[in-house]
Design a protein that fits this description.
By secondary structure, the chain is an alpha+beta fold. The chain has two domains: 3-41; 51-128. It has five helices and three strands; from the N terminus they run E-E-E-H-H-H-H-H. Strand 1 and strand 2 (13-18) form a beta hairpin. The radius of gyration is 18 Å and the shape is flat.
Length: 139
């Protein structure tokens, strides 16, 4: 009984789809929105990485390339994905920015999202390096 992961273009979510058998794994629909516009992705495999390893592995240029044109819709999709993937490690608010953009607000961070991302990465790396300053929160 396989479970496959898909990226849904309809709701911009990564979803798990359960099949009763490998033979029945065709033409799935998104369990969240019902869209048939799904792209199968490689499922994550067990590899424990520390928060600092995850932050160090962020490819800034690749993330900026994923931003698209930078209009409100593209920014919201990008910020939503960044929030899912990195808000925990970065202590950032990308998910909140996505919600603002989707609701019609135009967050100031949309003007220069690269600065926002670089700032969050630098802040997290500095906190992880034990710079001698006191910081609230953390792991």
């Amino acid at each position: 009984m396989p479970i496959y992961q898909y990226d849904c273009a309809g709701c911009d979510r990564r979803v798990d789809v359960f099949f009763r058998s490998a033979n029945s794994a065709s033409d799935p629909g998104c369990p969240e929105c019902g869209s048939a516009d799904l792209s199968r992705v490689m499922s994550a495999f067990a590899r424990n990485r520390s928060s600092s390893d995850r932050v160090a592995s962020i490819d800034f240029e690749q993330e900026m390339g994923r931003l698209g044109s930078g209009n409100e819709g593209d920014f919201a999709k990008w910020a939503k994905r960044m929030g899912r993937e990195y808000d925990g490690e970065l202590g950032s608010n990308f998910s909140e920015l996505a919600e603002k953009a989707e609701s019609g607000d135009d967050p100031i961070e949309r003007v220069d999202p690269g600065f926002k991302l670089q700032h969050e990465i630098s802040k997290t790396k500095k906190k992880g390096s034990g710079d001698g300053h006191s910081h609230d929160g953390g792991d």
